[in-house]
Amino acid sequence: MITVHHYLVLGAILFSLGTFGVLTRKNAIVIFMCIELMLNAVNLTFISLSHYLGNMDGQIFVLFIMAVAAAEAAVGLALMIAFFRNRESISVDDFNLLKW
Amino acid sequence: METYMLETFYFYLLALVAVVSGYLVVTCKSPINNAVALMMTFVCLANFYVMLQAPFMAAIQIMVYAGAILMLIIFVIMLLNMDSLKGQKVSHSASWAAGLAALVFIQVYFVLNRSEPTGLTGGITNQVVATVGHTQLIAKSLFTDFLLPFEIASILLLVAIVGAVVLAKKNV
Question: In whole angstroms, what is the distance from residue B91 CA to residue B88 CA?
Answer without folding.
Answer: 7
